[in-house]
């Protein structure tokens, strides 16, 4: 479950990190089916409202939750984001799935306090619910020297060449859950 960062916004289909994950699973000979339930622009509230139906339909063994960036971009209350992520994590776990939360960070113009509290909420939800965590999906991209070269003209969505780095950020934690 994700937003535009996982839904291949502005990319040729099959080139985003989720599609690359499916290829990696096949290459590693891990029998898995990937369902990309990501929607560009989605918030944690949107994900929370869709999750029950997706869990019932797909009965996943693992759920990756990559949501929250749009909450921050819209200035939604941090407590709302945290509550939604908590409810989604607990619902997926109750349905028998292992959960991997994928964290995000906000640009520095949001202020140090907000940025720190936003980044921390992912770790707090993961720790409280014993879920796995990728602290920052865009590590090595948004914080890279000359990072603008890795983003589409909107400076929000990574270019195709950044998506293997995104997968590399997710894979080590997901691989632990797959064992």
Question: Can you put this structure into words, describing what you see?
Answer:
By secondary structure, the chain is mainly α. The protein has a single domain, classed as SGNH hydrolase (Rossmann fold, 3-Layer(aba) Sandwich). It contains 6 helices and 3 strands; from the N terminus they run H-H-E-H-H-E-H-E-H. Strands 1-2-3 form a 3-stranded parallel β-sheet, with helices on both faces. The radius of gyration is 15 Å and the shape is globular. The protein starts with 16 loop residues before the first helix and ends with a helix. The mean pLDDT is 96.
SSE blueprint:
Blueprint: H1 17-27, H2 44-58, E1 62-65, H3 69-73, H4 78-94, E2 98-102, H5 112-129, E3 132-134, H6 163-178
Parallel strand pairs: 1-2, 2-3
The CATH architecture designation is 3-Layer(aba) Sandwich
Spans of at least 5 consecutive residues whose pLDDT stays below 50 are none
Largest sheet, spatial ordering of strands: 1-2-3
Mean pLDDT: 96
From the alpha carbons, calculate the radius of gyration and give it in angstroms: 15 Å
The CATH first-level class comes to Alpha Beta
Class of secondary structure makeup: mainly alpha
Q: How would you summarize what this structure contains?
A:
The chain has 179 residues and is mainly α. Helix content is 46%, strand content 7%.
């Amino acid at each position: 479950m994700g937003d535009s960062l996982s839904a291949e916004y502005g990319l040729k289909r099959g080139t985003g990190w989720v599609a690359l994950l499916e290829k990696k699973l096949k290459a590693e000979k891990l029998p898995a089916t990937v369902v990309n339930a990501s929607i560009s622009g989605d918030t944690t509230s949107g994900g929370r409202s869709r999750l029950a139906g997706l869990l019932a339909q797909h009965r996943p063994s693992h759920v990756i939750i990559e949501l929250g960036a749009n909450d921050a971009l819209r200035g939604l209350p941090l407590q709302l984001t945290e509550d939604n992520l908590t409810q989604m994590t607990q619902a997926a776990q109750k349905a028998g799935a292992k959960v991997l939360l994928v964290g995000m960070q906000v640009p520095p113009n949001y202020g140090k306090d907000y940025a720190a509290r936003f980044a921390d909420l992912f770790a707090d939800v993961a720790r409280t619910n014993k879920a796995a965590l990728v602290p920052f999906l865009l590590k090595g991209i948004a914080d890279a020297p000359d990072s603008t070269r890795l983003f589409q003209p909107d400076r929000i969505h990574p270019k195709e060449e950044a998506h293997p780095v995104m997968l590399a950020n997710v894979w080590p934690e997901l691989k632990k859950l797959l064992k």
